[in-house]
Specification:
DUF3000 domain-containing protein; single chain; alpha+beta; disordered C terminus; six-stranded antiparallel beta sheet; 188 residues; 24% helix
């Protein structure tokens, strides 16, 4: 039998997946969760698309639950998040982008309440050689983080993950129109 605390996580995921779209650019799906990290686990995957259907960011959010708790967890829950987003080369070149992305996460988590946060931010430049030498270089950011919610309601943590994924993809905040031709903008 699923513990009531974890059943609420499953209910939250169902409500998000079956409810109205969070943003038109965002596609969320249920995905298999790793089964060896905790007795109970649930996961979501997300992708963000431009108007031309180009995928500009992806992510995964995993909620782990162990009623007995685990070392390093402040309660029975641990949230694990991954976000990968394409970056404009000039943004990727900024030495502060890792710190800025980490701050986006902490600011988004603040209303939900968190403890024991840890993670990494990586920026990468991919250059093509040989038969692929004509392909343009790409730059991307990867954020990997985990934290313990300070309560049992994970809705705010899902919202924080979505917010950071949208921000790293260059989308404007909800309710703000994008400029045409920008990362989240229309077709100029």
């Amino acid at each position: 039998m699923t513990p009531p605390a974890f059943e609420r996580v499953l209910d939250t995921f169902r409500e998000i997946l079956e409810g109205p779209a969070v943003r038109p650019e965002l596609d969320l799906e249920d995905m298999p969760a790793p089964q060896r990290l905790a007795p109970y686990a649930a996961a979501l995957s997300g992708s963000i698309y431009r108007d031309d259907d180009t995928e500009v960011a992806t992510g995964r959010l995993i909620v782990l639950y162990d009623p007995a708790g685990q070392d390093g967890w402040t309660n029975g829950f641990r949230v694990v998040a991954y976000i990968r987003a394409d970056l404009e080369p000039d943004i990727a070149a900024d030495e502060l982008i890792g710190s800025v992305a980490w701050d986006w996460l902490l600011e988004a988590l603040e209303p939900a309440g968190y403890a024991g946060v840890s993670g990494t931010v990586t920026r990468a430049v991919s250059e093509s050689f040989g038969d692929k030498r004509g392909e343009p270089s790409t730059t991307e950011l990867e954020l990997r983080a985990s934290w313990s919610p300070t309560g049992e309601d994970v809705a705010g943590h899902v919202a924080a993950w979505i917010e950071v994924m949208c921000t790293t993809a260059g989308l404007p905040p909800t309710g703000v129109a994008a400029l045409p031709g920008g990362p989240g903008g229309g077709r100029g």
